[in-house]
Structures are given as C-alpha cells and as structure tokens.
Amino acid sequence: MTVALEAGPRARTARNGANPPMGGDNVLEARALHVYYGAFRAIENVTLPIARNRITAFIGPSGCGKSTMLRAFNRMNDLVPTARVEGDIVYRGQSIYAPGVDPVEVRRHIGMVFQKPNPFPKSIYDNVAWGARINGFRGTRRELDDLVEAALVQAALWDEVHDKLDQSGLSLSGGQQQRLCIARAIAVKPDVILMDEPCSALDPIATLRIEDLMQQLKERYTILIVTHNMQQAARASDYTAFFNMGDRRQGYLVEFGPTPELFTNPKDPRTEDYITGRFG
Amino acid sequence: MTVTTTRLRGVEAAPEADTVPLGRRRRWREDAVEAVLFAAGFVSILTTGAIVVVLGKDALHFFRNPDVSLVDFLTGTVWQPQLGKFGLLPLLNATLMVSGIAMVVALPIGLSIAVYLSEYATPAVRNRLKPTLEILAGVPTVIYGYFALTFVTPILRWALGARTVDIYNVLSAGLVVGILVIPLVASMSEDALQAVPRALREAAYGLGATRLETSLQVVVPSALSGIAAAFMLAMSRAIGETMVVAIAAGAGPRLTANPLRSAETMTGYISRISGGDLSYNSVDYDSIFAIGLALFVITLGLNILSGRIVRRFREVYE
Fold first, then answer.
1. Within 13 Å and on the Cβ side, how many CA atoms surround B209?
2. What value of ipTM does the predicted structure carry?
C-alpha cells in the first residue's frame, strides 16, 4: 500500500486506518540515520526496522537520544531550527526525508503521544474532533460524533467522559488526559503512533491502563514507545531497541531484537549491564 | 560551629543537648530595605487615592452648581457651557468613536504582528522587528498628533474629497490613535502567545496541522485571556489618549455619527479648557473635573472588566 506524502492540495488520501491485522512486514525503517543539532551529533548511524502491528520499545539511559530517534520518525525534529538528518527513514517504501515530502503529511500518518499529557484548552469533544477537522473531515455532524465516540472508545475513555464531552480537556485527571491525547491521535486515523514516555507523568494504575490500551491498539496500529521503565518495555513490547550514549554524547543503537530475547538473553554485554541495573 | 560538625558525622549517635543561639536577631538593613520597598509601593496607592479625592471634590463642586444636574450631565445631547448646557454625550460619543476606530485598526494589525513574531519569525527577524516596534511605542504622542493632522488628514481629504472630510476629523485621529496603540497590542499579545506551552504546538503539529492551523486554531485561542487583556488595556489607552485628539479631532463638541466631521473628545475638551484662559472658579472650569471623573470611571470599569475576562478565560497550564 502506498500513501501520498507529497506536498500538494490538502485533499488527503482517504484511509480508514484498518490495517490488516498482524501483517508481518516492516512499515517503517531507519537506514543509517544520523541526527544532528547544529554541530552536535545526537544520533549516530542507526538502522532499525519497525514491524507492522507490533509494539517496539526504545530503552536506554537518559540523554541517549531515544526521544530524538522517535521524533525522527515523524519529522518532529524539523521544529527545532538547527536539527538536520543524514541517512533515511523509509515509510511504506517512501523516504520521508525526500525533497518533495511534506512533513505535515508525514505526521498525519505517523501520529504522536507526548510525555506530559497535553490536551488543548478546548472541550473533550473538540480535542478529539480538531485533528479530524484540520485533516479535511467532510462528514456530517453525526458522522463526526461517531468518529469522536469511536476514538474515545478505542482509547478506553468513553465510559468516563461520555456525559461531559463539552467540558474542558484540562478538567480531566492526568491519566484521563493522556488517554484523551491517545484518542486525539487515533481520531486522525494514523498508521503508526509514536509514544514518547507516555506514562512518565502517570501513577502506576493509570500506567497499567495505558499499557493494556497499547495491547488493544496494536491490532490496528503500529506503536513505537520510548520508555524509561525497563519493566514496561519487558511487559508491553514485542521488540526492544536498546540505545546507549557514546563518548561524544552521541546516541547509538546497541542491540535490537524481540523483547523476550533481549531481556533474557542479551547478546551485547552493555545491554546486559543495563537491563540488570548496573548502569543507567 | 558545633552543630555542623556533629551533623556532618550524621550517622553517629545524636549529640547531647548542646544549646546554640537560635533567638531572633534584629537585622536593621533588612528592615530598612523592606520599609523603602513598601514606601515605593505605597506611593502608587497614595497617588490613586489622591486622584480620586481631587477629582471627586471638584466634580462635587461642579454638580453643586444650581445650573447643573447629574441627569442632564449624563443624558444631555448638547455641551455648551456658555448656555448652561452640560450634556456629556457629544464628548463621550467622540471619545468612543475615536477609540472604536483605533481598536478596529490596532487589534487586527497588532495581533497579526504578534502572531508573526511569536509563531513565524526567525530569531534574527524577531530581534530586528521587536526593537523597531518599541521605537514606535516611544514616539511622543504630540508627534502622532501632527502626523494625523498633516499626513493622514490630507490623504483622507484627497481620497474622499475635501468637502466631505473636515480638516479636523474623528477618523484621522482614530486611525492614528490606532497606530499609536499597535505596539501595546502587539507586545502584550506576543507575550501571551509566548506563554502558551510548546507542548500544545507540538500536539498540533503531531496531528498533522500546518503552521497556520497551529497558530490560529490552537495557540491564539489558548492565549485568549492575555489577548483580551491586551485589547482592554489598549482600549483604556485609546480612551485616555489626549494629544492626538486635541490636535487632529477638532475643538468643538458635536454630537455626530459621521467620523469625517470634527468632534471634540472628553480628553480633548479637558486639555483645551485646562490650557485656556478661563478663570478658575467658573462652571466651565469645574466641568473638566466631572469629565475627568467620568473618564476615570470608564477606564476603571474597563480594567475591572478585563480582570474578569482574564480570570474567566484563563487556562492554567502546569
């Protein structure tokens, strides 16, 4: 399947987000990727395949560039004026860094959930509906209602908010806000969802809810998650990529593999040191 | 000191009850500085109080005059002190027209500048544009007055015809007062936009929003309370602006809805009378205190309103 990433009129490809469940192929792939902030190399030479309908976790010590790596996948680093990329990221056979590619289109297919819940100061309904509206949603009010409901149901938030959709998104608890942000990302019908430490601001119960939710979401979406929490990576992910920081503070990929293997039988001594808690 | 040494050895048993001096000490420098700071703050309260007293006292003197009634003052449509007619409406109308026109100019332009500076400009452009804007804010208002009279008015008269546009007219003054408050609107709105957390912009971009969608549909609404406060403050400033209207709007009270005619505003009237050769005990002279009090009430009301709006629409971000 190919998708239009070229800059152009905002008539967007109509997709309903229902990927064939459990397809085995790679939807995204980083190829010899370097990311720079000015002269500083934040990410060095990462090659990494991302399997469709799986959860891939990025772990590693603070400052090793996990978030930078994640943000490279939807060109979020473009918002930093000095950021620059070498190498490539391929999404469904297309380079997302090719000259004609519109980062706005990329982000519409590759959505994002952030570290701190960041709902808009709008109503719960509008938080979810806004993304669809700016992406050229042309349905009736009824259809938009259905879309909002479906997204909130998928984000496991509907039962808690269905009777107060007109209240501000900021009135919710932290865990609810984060699920609202997930619903907001889902409502755009993305293909891939990037999650940047989505539970770091949440309590353990809210964290477990998000992890359960991720298991449901992976049937429809491909998920990349950055986490500080190794238990979370071990519990919730299918693949794990372990990043470390080099002597020039550059982040590099140490080891990548299926999660059970990486945690029980790491090939690299540095991975073993990290997962057994010897550093990091 | 004994205390520190025992604490450094921390893990060991607690020390016996060595007493150390913990009594309150007098710190004269601290007290003196606090007193000076308090006095500085108190000056502003004192000034406000003094203004109210002076305005109130002399305004009361004016309303005690048998020729004057409060009802006529508030509802009268003619201001002609020579004939004993003290109706505020012509002056109030001119003031509102000038400030209305000013806000029509200042809000869109000021907000556009703010959005550009905050969301679009590169740091290099920003660092040049902001100081320029601040220069605009520093130009003496008397210069804006002559700018209105000798530059804007001739253009209006050329464009719309010298017969339809008076030499002194409300439109010219309003436009220039608008230009005068643009820096205020722009600078305060920009501060409000800058205060919107980066996380909200990222959320919008992450959903595939363009820069325009992010700026206008997420950042501006999120900064609404600050923008409303900027608007209100600019409105107060426009209502209180004196020099421009004294020079360019005309020197004769007139109740008109036509901004191309001349009409004197409340501030314009006050400046003309207080600078003129009227005797200090005439009713005319006393009237300016009543007008001043009315101005004070209007701007105070706007400030209170803006405070309410800010509180009503403020979003609390962590």
1. 26
2. 0.86
